[in-house]
């Protein structure tokens, strides 16, 4: 049985949750600053507002913003499913039927999960750096997708997937193989990059004495030493971009069956970070990040190659 719709939804989720989600949507979904409500209060009244009223208006305002942000985000997901479907049709010439009511249910479930996450973050902003919240969020999305598609189509998706894996790769149609390739590429590049970023935040936040050079690795941004207010020169998001290129290079190396090229990447990374590796803490985080970057890229590259060769 063809389950291209399932893979279309998964690919759309990865693309529009990780790759194409911009800062504007993120700030709406997870409002942090009080400047928004401050401006609203100045517009509405010049009188002194009691603290209780201020807190109520502030709470109402940020919740409203998070709801609007998540509605926009879920709507983009809905449209994204049809964009991915059209893309596969364009590449392979085989259209996939995408029922609107199923896509609507998936988008609604996406909104519910994300709004709960937004409310959780508003209660404790530190949870943004919590790796377990990240995994729980992704797991809930996957469960809802499996449940909705299984119930609406009167099938057991898990059993079908298991049967296809048992006769791998012959159990998958060409459409499904193409979708798996795109899923693996998106996951290996952006998905793994965001996971590493959140994990490094999580690890560093649990450390009372944070080395700001390590924070540079975790935030993939310029380092600002809070004591001296000196900046360590470097490209904004340089670490994240390097990670994307690194994992793309590994995927290509595995797919073309030339894994020796991976040694070239390791050499470049080691030379570029040679001076910083004298810092024990940075070296530990560097090694953790390198392994977390290499292993998924290797495994997903092997899966891509095994689908066609």
Describe the 3D structure.
- This protein has 309 residues and is mainly alpha-helical.
- The protein has two domains: 1-166, no CATH class; 172-309, no CATH class.
- Helix content is 74%, strand content 1%.
- The chain has twelve helices and two strands.
- Strands 1-2 form a two-stranded antiparallel ribbon.
- Helix 2 (23-29) crosses helix 4 (51-92), helix 8 (174-205) packs antiparallel against helix 10 and helix 10 (238-255) runs parallel beside helix 12.
- The longest helix is centred in the N-terminal third of the chain and has 42 residues, at 51-92.
- It is flat, with a radius of gyration of 22 Å.
- The two termini are 23 Å apart.
Topology:
Layout: H1 4-19, H2 23-29, H3 35-44, H4 51-92, H5 100-123, H6 131-152, H7 157-166, H8 174-205, H9 212-219, E1 223-224, E2 231-232, H10 238-255, H11 261-272, H12 280-308
Antiparallel strand pairs: 1-2
């Amino acid at each position: 049985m063809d389950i291209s719709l399932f893979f279309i939804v998964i690919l759309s989720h990865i693309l529009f949750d990780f790759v194409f989600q911009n800062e504007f949507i993120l700030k709406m979904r997870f409002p942090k600053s009080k400047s928004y409500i401050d401006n609203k209060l100045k517009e509405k009244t010049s009188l002194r507002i009691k603290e209780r009223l201020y807190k109520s208006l502030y709470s109402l305002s940020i919740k409203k913003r998070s709801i609007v942000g998540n509605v926009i985000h879920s709507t983009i997901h809905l449209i994204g499913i049809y964009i991915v479907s059209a893309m596969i049709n364009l590449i392979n010439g085989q259209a996939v039927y995408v029922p609107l009511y199923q896509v609507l249910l998936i988008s609604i479930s996406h909104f519910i999960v994300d709004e709960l996450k937004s409310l959780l973050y508003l209660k404790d902003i530190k949870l943004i750096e919590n790796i377990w919240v990240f995994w729980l969020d992704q797991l809930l999305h996957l469960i809802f997708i499996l449940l909705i598609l299984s119930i609406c189509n009167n099938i057991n998706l898990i059993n079908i997937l298991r049967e296809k894996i048992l006769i791998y790769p012959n159990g998958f149609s060409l459409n499904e193989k193409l979708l798996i390739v795109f899923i693996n590429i998106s996951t290996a590049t952006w998905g793994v990059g965001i996971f590493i970023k959140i994990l490094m935040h999580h690890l560093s936040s649990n450390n009372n004495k944070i080395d700001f050079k390590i924070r540079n690795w975790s935030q993939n941004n310029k380092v600002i030493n809070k004591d001296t207010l000196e900046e360590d020169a470097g490209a904004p998001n340089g670490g994240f971009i390097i990670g994307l290129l690194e994992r793309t290079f590994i995927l290509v190396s595995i797919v073309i069956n030339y894994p020796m090229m991976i040694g070239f990447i390791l050499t470049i990374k080691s030379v570029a970070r040679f001076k910083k590796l004298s810092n024990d803490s940075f070296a530990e985080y560097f090694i953790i990040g390198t392994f977390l970057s290499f292993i998924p890229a290797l495994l997903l590259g092997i899966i891509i190659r095994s689908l066609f060769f």
